[in-house]
Amino acid sequence: MSIPHLPPEIETLTPSWAGETSGLAHLVSTGLDTSHGQILYLQDVCVSFDGFRALNHLSLEIGVGELRCVIGPNGAGKTTMMDVITGKTRPDSGDVFFGETIDLTRHREAQIARMGIGRKFQKPTVFEAMSVADNLALALSGDKGVWASLRYRLSGVQHDRIDELLQITRLAEFSHRLAGLLSHGQKQWLEIGMLLAQDPKLLLLDEPVAGMTDAETEKTAELLCSLKGRHSLMVVEHDMAFVGSIAERVTVLAEGAVLAEGSLAQVQADERVIEVYLGR
Ligand SMILES: Nc1ncnc2c1ncn2[C@@H]1O[C@H](COP(=O)(O)OP(=O)(O)OP(=O)(O)O)[C@@H](O)[C@H]1O
Ligand SMILES: [Mg+2]
């Protein structure tokens, strides 16, 4: 399959901290058209592995600025769905659109990340031998490579953004600590901060509170709620107390398709959801 080159307006995507744009100019600079209020569309997406249907005509939409929770039993296809959105897995059929016009199935993983879709995997991948602030500086400086980035002089705007990210991630008092010395939860927040440094429009988080203490889980809920509006978020979790503390709209996946969607109370009362997931 041939992969087309990105249009120039996407290749030259600049992070928002580099200078605000407005109106049509903003659309041109980002290439993202969300004029219908949706940031992500999945329509009839199918993925098979050796004949096994991991995604089976999955259709889902995420609104701009929304925080969507996705729940469902093991093997339902939640991670596979994120793999499809981020270009890691190609669907066998179906549509995957970022905004109205960007067909994600035609782009590579790195391009999709640059277009503004950030993904947090379960295991934190921070640079343990660097300080918290340096990890954020590295993430802010983008694709320059580690050594070039360390020599790279941060602008005042970038210093302000690092301070802001330290506040958001509750790591301000640990800014000089080596990332390797942080707790598991703090590493997760640092990685979220590093993703935010790229100013993603859509952030995908796969089981963000797995392995966290109750106190860390609570702080993570506050952190994610504070991101709503500025970013669109899709959060996959099994921890129902956590889901209850952040959820607006909840999607239940089962056997590769949407089983139910609505408020947490609505899906919790759904007999089919109780049978395949919550009742176990
Ligand atoms: N690369 C792959 N090769 C073969 N099978 C795969 C692959 N990736 C996923 N699967 C299968 O697809 C199905 C969906 O897996 P997926 O990881 O998306 O589920 P999930 O909803 O994220 O589950 P969990 O809650 O356990 O994380 C599973 O049966 C899994 O074994
Ligand atoms: Mg998974």
Automatic annotation (TrEMBL):
The keyword Transport applies. It comes from the Bacteria. Transmembrane segments: none annotated. Gene3D superfamilies: P-loop containing nucleotide triphosphate hydrolases. InterPro entries: ABC_AA/LPS_Transport (IPR051120), ABC_transporter-like_ATP-bd (IPR003439), ABC_transptr_urea_ATP-bd_UrtD (IPR017781), BCA_ABC_TP_C (IPR032823), P-loop_NTPase (IPR027417). GO terms for cellular component: plasma membrane. Residues 40-280 form the ABC transporter domain. GO terms for molecular function: ATP binding; ATP hydrolysis activity. The keyword Transport applies. Keywords: ATP-binding, Nucleotide-binding, Transport. NCBIfam families: urea_trans_UrtD. This is Urea ABC transporter ATP-binding protein UrtD. It comes from Craterilacuibacter sinensis.
